[in-house]
Amino acid sequence: MGDYSTLGDVAGKRVLVRSDLNVPLDGTRITDDGRVRASVPTIRALAEAGARVVVVAHLGRPKGAPEDRYSLRPVAARLGELLGQEVAFATDTVGDSARAVVDGLGDGQVAVLENVRFNPGETSKDDAERGVFADQLAALADAFVSDGFGVVHRKQASVYDVAQRLPHAMGGLVATELEVMKRLTEAPERPYAVVLGGSKVSDKLGVIDNLLGKADRLLIGGGMVFTFLKAQGHEVGKSLLEDDQLDICRAYLARAEESGVDIVLPTDVVVDTAFPSGDRTPEPRVVPATEIPADCLGLDIGPDSGAAFAAALADAHTVFWNGPMGVFEVAAFAEGTRAVAQALTEVDGLSVVGGGDSAAAVRALGFEESAFGHISTGGGASLEYLEGKQLPGIKVLED
Ligand code: ADP
Ligand code: MG
Known about the structure:
By secondary structure, the chain is of the alpha/beta class. The chain has helices at residues 34-48, 73-83, 96-103, 120-123, 127-138, 172-185, 201-211, 225-231, 246-259, 303-314, 335-345, 356-364, 379-386, 392-398; strands at 14-18, 25-26, 29-30, 52-56, 87-90, 110-113, 143-146, 168-170, 192-196, 217-220, 262-264, 268-272, 285-288, 297-301, 318-322, 350-354, 374-375. The strands form four sheets. A six-stranded parallel sheet has the order 5-6-4-1-7-8, sandwiched between helices.
């Protein structure tokens, strides 16, 4: 749990909590509320201690201006249901509405501010511009608690700059996530296997560099696998491909061989002639990974690969998994992800799922959260930690 003792007695104080409430929405319906649920314990602990809790968070990627579809209003409502108490909502982040809502809070009450990314100062690369916005945020509170693990790798006003302006503490969620990350990096019980997938290929290639010195096995599926297959000289048709990363992938394969790290790539792939879309029924086909037809794209690892991946995880004592093995949102391309998720539930040791979509995938496929050692709320943050990078939102709390 979080340690808020550095803040003194919070009763009656306005405490600004940076949470990660960035949930997937279908219109105004939350399709996976995992991040809201993960944010509840810190908010509840502060409210129970008598604080006036002001939650600041973002949703999606608005471009520094209000957009209805990115409003946090439905998320604030869900937070209220989960907390079992009324949650006030400010229709702006640092303006008249925010000031009025914060002024109206009694001890133990909770408010959510509108999407912090509706303000250009939040994500500005200009320190001064971020600073001006952070001053406005800081004016709303007496103390700051950093609890949005999904954003601690970002040097943003509500994550970084505001911590320099208020007495601050690490929230319980961030503390728990960091403990798990430490277990993955400091002395992982071996064999240590890492499974990587998903679609943000170049984002995720960086972590491989560091993992080649740490993990015993690296299993690669999802969209990034095609850049590896191509690097090995195979044609990948219309699959997701990052041409400018081919040399890097080749170098990784060579280094893995030298350092004795097993890289496990799929031997078969589920393909279709088009990316799944609403107006077309999927026509999945399984082909060898080395024979992807020119008019097809790979959308999942095949059944042989699913079994091989599960076998490569069976005796591991530490497993970190980030990124779905295929387009799991469509049932025809979800089996690879299911096979890996199932294998993680059977790990004798520590199993960690990281990444927004990966976490949503295991829940959507019907797995119990308790079947995994830990489901991280932060994809990018956990990857950057594993890359060995310093996370600005953590560093600033230690200064
Ligand atoms: P996470 O949020 O867990 O870090 P990413 O955001 O990197 O994961 O990727 C998730 C997305 O990757 C999913 O929406 C899934 O449909 C997509 N994906 C997985 N495999 C493929 C593939 N072969 N081609 C295209 N997209 C893929
Ligand atoms: Mg994602």
